[in-house]
Design brief:
Elements: E1 3-5, H1 15-21, E2 30-32, H2 40-46, H3 51-62, H4 68-78, H5 81-84, E3 91-95, E4 98-105, H6 116-119, H7 122-132, E5 138-144, H8 149-157, E6 163-170, H9 176-183, E7 190-196, H10 199-210, H11 213-220, E8 224-227, H12 234-253, E9 263-268, H13 273-283, E10 288-295, H14 300-307, E11 309-311, H15 332-339, H16 344-357, E12 359-361, H17 364-373, E13 374-378, H18 381-395, H19 401-417, E14 423-427, H20 435-443, H21 453-464, E15 484-487, H22 491-500
Parallel strand pairs: 4-14, 5-6, 5-8, 6-7, 7-15, 9-10, 9-14, 10-13
Antiparallel strand pairs: 1-2, 3-4, 11-12
Helix pairs in contact: 1-7, 2-12, 3-4, 3-12, 12-13, 18-19, 18-20, 20-21
């Protein structure tokens, strides 16, 4: 399969090269030149498969320059019972009296967030891609994180031969637990750097570094090649397609739907990668009714799906859903490229307008195509806390703040539409990752004030009957290994200093 840039500046790469590159040389994002199809018969057969078997079927279609034997090995090594439990992505019916609502739990991996589903397998694809392409350089995984990608990348690539990892995170834009997960990370090939700014600042800095040809040449002198573990890397995005097929297969196996029935998928959305994976699953053959794009108060996506204007020139809010505190959703570029029938000239103009003017407006035809499948909505902090309590009272299920955004937006969609389609809510993180906000929701506003994270975790565990994830237990007792804080203007210099001194 060939991968091409959304900006049109190359003749295409095979999947190994696409994974190794991470981003196209012209600054665009790589997408498949044509989207492979999975038949109804194969989807029906998935009802009797394990998650690992479904992953093999889906990823073999997307990465056809890897053999099925290779992919089967990667899948087996990534999704072990030790890392994820018996089922890496269980689908749970929320209420025994209502089989319309189901929650897809994507937080059973090592870092308790959905990013593990991709970042436990990406290192296997990355190291194999390095060998397939004959690359002799060290691969540096350069990543900006709004909270979860950083830790998942660090954990996935820890001590992986031939790689280094540099993670940038906004110094005041992640939760206390997310920060502790990163700064206590061990691994000889890892660096974690706080940026004095927002996630958009960190992400913009990383994109700028990737687009700097002179800097690329400087690194080549040290035999270093940059790549990414953000969802700008197709190798990060593709494994996320798998769990949408697995959720549909679970509904089939439980006889909640018949083959061909369309489902709704509700995704809390920041950088747009997770919901884009659902869209690609749909284009590969998954029967989907609506994709419900759920935003927090930084509602740039919600506004875009309503009026067709993407405008980042607005106030930025720090919320109780830090992983969604984003105003520039990188993966939207991929969707626009697909919706615009690969018209890279049009896409490049929109992206240039965003960069130079801070906004762009799509044409009416493009907007209509987007609105056929996507529903946008947002929730503020008060609504999120209220929703956590309501879901807990109604379903005896505790969700984190990000997942609660999805429930909040869906409830309003359902009230106005009456849409009875079976609905899958994507649970993107464990409630234990945000214990302060979740405890305030369950025990009462202000409950977390004056209580330590350790106490909150323990009390939340006792209340909801779930064990504290191993990776989150005792974080405050681990040594701090990463303390660097830089202004956003120093990101490129920091990357060079970290890599050059080591080579």
């Amino acid at each position: 399969m060939n991968y091409i840039s959304t900006r049109g500046g190359n003749d295409g790469f095979d999947s190994a090269m696409a994974i190794k590159q991470g981003i196209a040389p012209d600054g665009g994002l790589l997408v498949p030149s044509s989207i492979p199809q999975i038949s109804d018969e194969t989807i029906a057969m998935m009802a009797g498969m394990t998650y690992q078997q479904i992953a093999l079927e889906v990823l073999s279609e997307l990465f056809d320059d890897f053999s099925r034997i290779e992919i089967a090995r990667f899948v087996a090594d990534a999704y072990t019972e030790e890392k994820f439990g018996e089922n890496p992505a269980p689908l749970v019916q929320l209420n025994k009296y209502n089989d319309r609502e189901h929650i897809l739990e994507l937080f059973h991996g090592p870092t308790s967030a959905f990013k593990d589903m991709a970042l436990q397998i990406l290192p296997h694809f990355m190291t194999a891609s390095i060998k397939k392409t004959g690359e002799k350089s060290t691969i540096c995984i350069l990543t900006a994180t709004s909270g979860d990608t950083g830790k998942a990348a660090l954990e996935g690539f820890k001590d992986v031969e031939g790689t280094k990892v540099i993670v940038f995170y906004p110094s005041k834009g992640v939760s206390d637990i997310q920060k502790l997960q990163m700064v206590t990370q061990e691994g000889d090939n890892l660096s974690v750097v706080a940026v004095d700014g927002t996630f958009d600042d960190a992400q913009g800095g990383v994109k700028s570094i990737f687009g700097d040809n002179s800097f690329e040449q400087k690194l080549k002198e040290h035999k270093i090649l940059l790549s990414s573990a953000n969802s700008i890397n197709w190798g990060r995005l593709a494994p996320q397609i798998v769990y949408y097929f697995s959720s549909y297969a679970a509904l089939l196996s439980k006889e909640k739907i018949a083959m061909g029935d369309k489902i709704n998928i509700v995704v809390p959305t920041g950088n747009f990668g997770n919901i884009l994976s659902a869209w690609y699953a749909m284009k590969m053959g998954l029967p989907v009714n609506k994709l419900i794009c759920s935003s927090n108060r930084n509602k740039v996506l919600s506004d875009f799906f309503r009026n067709g204007t993407y405008d980042r020139k607005r106030e930025f809010y720090k919320t109780n859903t830090p992983s969604m505190d984003i105003l520039v959703s990188s993966n939207l570029e991929r969707l626009l490229f697909e919706i615009a029938d690969h018209d890279y000239v049009k896409v490049a103009k929109w992206m240039d307008d965003l960069r130079s003017q801070g906004s762009y407006t799509v044409d009416p035809v493009t907007l209509k195509k987007l609105q056929e499948k996507f529903v946008g909505g947002f929730a503020d902090e008060t609504g999120i806390i209220k929703t956590i309590r309501e879901v807990y009272d109604r379903c005896d299920t505790c969700v984190d703040t990000h997942t609660a955004v999805g429930f909040n937006v869906y409830e309003r969609y359902y009230a106005r539409s009456g849409d009875e389609s079976k609905t899958v809510f994507v649970a993107t993180a464990s409630p234990f990752k945000f214990p302060g906000a979740v405890c305030d929701a369950i025990f009462g506003n202000g409950y977390s004030k004056g209580r330590s994270e350790e106490v909150l975790l323990r009390e939340l565990s006792a209340e909801i009957g779930m064990e504290i994830p191993q990776g989150l237990n005792g974080l405050n007792k681990k040594p701090i290994n990463h303390t660097t804080l830089i202004p956003k203007a120093k990101m490129e210099e920091t990357v060079y200093n970290i890599l050059a001194k080591e080579n």
